């Protein structure tokens, strides 16, 4: 079976996923795209034989030849398009965040349960990264004993003027909020935000870097450095300290150059380079699971859990205190 996909949002990652669905992967083709920027949507179809640009997202979602939907528009539009896909009974892959607040995520969780089977997958691609998968394997089989402390770094070389201090949580660290929950297999209980000395490279309104502190229900302590004007590259770090060992994410490079008295290893420059392989595996597994009629990837409950934690971090930053992370009980539907 070939899955006919409609894509909403033809910006950076939308075009990236369209390329992957149309070339790199098997079992899918893009038949329709839409964007509020109609010129952009049209220009994308020029390189996509058999695909058309549709004026409105609702029309794309309900089109008879669209089997499944990919949402890669801006975060505040996700809730509407995911709910419309559920109403149409179509599987939907939604880039992070699932929605911008925990309440909005719950509306999606409720609608999906009312539908009766899983339709939503969220784009937490780090779960498909070979490095994070290998770390999780070590932690799960008890290779370092019980995890006690986790240190993370999420560094981007630079961000646009429009990037805000809250986005360090909702747009950037949202990846760690999901990955760490998956890696440690437990939820968070509390959250705190520390502002570090500001880099002179940050816009005047932006706190950068920031240190996010989390505690899990069992008491594991986590620090996440988010530094989005680090200048030198796109650098992702994660180290889990256990009772009798440490497991650390390696850099995803396979060559090092020794030359002129030096030893150099390249550092990736953006999320496309760093997680390219993870995006391919993630999207192939989604296509295969849509064809099989049984979704298995990160769920709308995972999107909700990340949003609850993000909300707690924002509250902690606003009120300069430790905030509780209060999750609802997970329905059996998402067990
Ligand atoms: P972008 O601005 O490059 O593209 C977004 C596109 O959506 C634009 O073309 C815009 O015109 C379109 N759009 C906005 N509102 C729309 C609407 N109501 N209907 C239809 N189209 C609409 O942004 P981007 O960098 O591609 O990010 C898109 C989403 O993907 C965001 O949610 C972002 O957080 C996520 N993202 C995830 C990763 C990752 O590492 N997983 C990386 C980048 C972006
Ligand atoms: C972007 O939207 C992503 O998801 C990237 O993975 C992240 O590193 C970056 O900070 C975000 O803006």
List keywords for this structure.
single chain, 36% helix, alpha/beta, six-stranded parallel sheet, seven-stranded mixed sheet, binds (2R,3S,4s,5R,6S)-2,3,4,5,6-pentahydroxycyclohexanone
Q: What does this molecule look like?
A:
This protein is α/β, with parallel strands linked by helices and 335 residues long. The chain has helices at 12-24, 38-45, 57-62, 78-87, 102-115, 130-140, 167-184, 271-292, 300-319; strands at residues 3-8, 28-34, 52-53, 68-71, 92-94, 120-122, 147-155, 188-195, 210-216, 221-227, 235-242, 246-248, 257-259, 262-264, 323-324. It has a seven-stranded mixed β-sheet, covered by helices on one side. The mean pLDDT is 97. (2R,3S,4s,5R,6S)-2,3,4,5,6-pentahydroxycyclohexanone binds at residues 156, 171-172, 175, 271.
In short:
By secondary structure, the chain is an alpha/beta fold. It is built from 9 helices and 15 strands. It has a 7-stranded mixed beta sheet, covered by helices on one side. Strands 3-2-1-4-5-6 form a 6-stranded parallel beta sheet, with helices on both faces. A two-stranded antiparallel sheet has the order 13-14.
Number of strands: 15
Per DSSP, the total helix count is 9
Average predicted confidence as pLDDT: 97
**N- and C-termini, Cα separation:** 28 Å
Main beta-sheet annotation: 7 strands, mixed
- Helix-strand string: EHEHEHEHEHEHEHEEEEEEEHHE
Radius of gyration: 20 Å
- So what's the overall shape? globular
Structural class: alpha/beta
Bound molecules: nicotinamide-adenine-dinucleotide, (2R,3S,4s,5R,6S)-2,3,4,5,6-pentahydroxycyclohexanone
Helix content: 25-40%
- Oligomer type: single chain
Strands of the largest sheet, in order across it?
12-11-7-10-9-8-15
Content of β-strand: 15-25%
Q: List the uncertain runs.
A: none
């Amino acid at each position: 079976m070939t899955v006919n996909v409609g894509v909403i949002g033809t910006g950076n990652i939308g075009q990236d996923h369209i390329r992957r669905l149309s070339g790199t992967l098997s079992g899918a083709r893009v038949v329709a795209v839409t964007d509020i920027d109609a010129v952009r949507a049209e220009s994308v179809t020029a390189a996509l034989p058999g695909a058309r640009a549709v004026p409105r997202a609702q029309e794309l979602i309900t089109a008879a030849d669209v089997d499944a939907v990919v949402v890669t528009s801006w975060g505040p539009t996700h809730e509407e398009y995911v709910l419309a896909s559920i109403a149409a009974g179509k599987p939907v892959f939604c880039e992070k965040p699932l929605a911008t607040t925990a309440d909005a995520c719950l509306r999606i969780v409720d609608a999906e349960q009312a539908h009766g089977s899983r339709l939503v997958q969220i784009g937490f691609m780090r779960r498909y990264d070979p490095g994070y998968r290998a770390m999780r394997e070590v932690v799960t089989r008890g290779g370092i004993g019980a995890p006690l402390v986790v240190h993370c770094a999420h560094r981007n070389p630079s961000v646009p003027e429009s990037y805000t201090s809250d986005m360090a949580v909702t747009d950037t660290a949202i990846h760690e909020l999901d990955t760490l929950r998956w890696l440690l297999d437990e939820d968070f209980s509390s959250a705190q935000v520390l502002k570090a000395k500001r880099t002179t490279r940050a816009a005047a309104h932006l706190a950068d870097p920031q240190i996010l502190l989390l505690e899990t229900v069992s008491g594991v302590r986590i620090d996440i450095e988010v530094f989005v004007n680090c200048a030198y590259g796109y650098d992702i770090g994660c180290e889990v300290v256990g009772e009798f060992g440490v497991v650390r994410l390696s850099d995803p490079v396979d060559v090092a150059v020794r030359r002129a008295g030096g030893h150099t290893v390249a550092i990736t420059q953006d999320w496309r380079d760093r997680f390219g392989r993870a995006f391919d595996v993630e999207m192939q597994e989604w296509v295969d699971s849509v064809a099989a009629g049984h979704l298995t990837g990160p769920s709308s409950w995972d999107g909700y859990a990340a949003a609850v934690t993000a909300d707690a971090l924002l509250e902690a930053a606003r009120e300069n205190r430790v905030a509780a992370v209060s999750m609802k009980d997970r329905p059996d539907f998402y067990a």
